[in-house]
Amino acid sequence: MTEERVIEVEKLTKRFGDFTAVDGITFHVRRGEIFGFLGANGAGKTTAMRMLCGLLSPTAGRAEVAGFDVYREADRIKHHIGYMSQRFSLYEDLTVAENIRLFGGIYGLTKRAIRERGAELISRLELQEEAHHRVGSLPLGWKQKLAFSVAVIHRPRIVFLDEPTGGVDPITRRRFWDLIIQAADAGITVFVTTHYMDEAEYCDRVSMMVDGRIEALDSPAALKRQFEASTMDEVFLQLARKATRRDD
């Protein structure tokens, strides 16, 4: 992790009619950092991520991702990031190898790079026997590891992961986080949303969202000290109660 900032956000806001999904959030993310975007379902995490990926236009505020403005340069942002959706982002009716070739082409890799990186990816995930099987036939844990590996096959500056471990068992979740840590060690910035508070322990820093607002932002250890808590679940419960009292 370096001090170089690859994401900068100031008072970013998104409204849908009278409903404010993201309410004036401000933060930055450094290169090589694992940045956790935590909060309950409906807290505004996915909406914020979609704005940063150039998929949704903000209502107000400003943000830059990989040095590009989210208003004017959304298409350029897309060329410098990877993205993995919570709803699984590969084509289940294509084989493992076909998905790799397809997304490698979408990300602009040469045929040679696709062959070389695809072979390395399949070997690293130990999917040699499944390379020509349809993705839909794979266990969920393998699908998720494959989806993540394909999302970074073009070696982007930043990868956005939206609830990547939803619906899998704790052992599979831990193995998935091993891939995230390896990507960060290689210099890729990881921006990950999750509602699993224990996953915050894997992050360098976390922001904790409640009802569209960032209520706290720091390292997991610092937040636990600040709130005199032993777990991140306890920190979040205190923040949620504080927000409820404020809004009453």
Automatic annotation (TrEMBL):
<keyword id="KW-0547">Nucleotide-binding</keyword>
<dbReference type="InterPro" id="IPR027417">
    <property type="entry name" value="P-loop_NTPase"/>
</dbReference>
<feature type="domain" description="ABC transporter">
    <location>
        <begin position="7"/>
        <end position="236"/>
    </location>
</feature>
<keyword id="KW-0067">ATP-binding</keyword>
<dbReference type="Pfam" id="PF00005">
    <property type="entry name" value="ABC_tran"/>
</dbReference>
<dbReference type="GO" id="GO:0016887">
    <property type="term" value="F:ATP hydrolysis activity"/>
</dbReference>
<dbReference type="InterPro" id="IPR003593">
    <property type="entry name" value="AAA+_ATPase"/>
</dbReference>
<dbReference type="InterPro" id="IPR003439">
    <property type="entry name" value="ABC_transporter-like_ATP-bd"/>
</dbReference>
<protein>
    <submittedName>
        <fullName>ABC transporter</fullName>
    </submittedName>
</protein>
<dbReference type="GO" id="GO:0005524">
    <property type="term" value="F:ATP binding"/>
</dbReference>
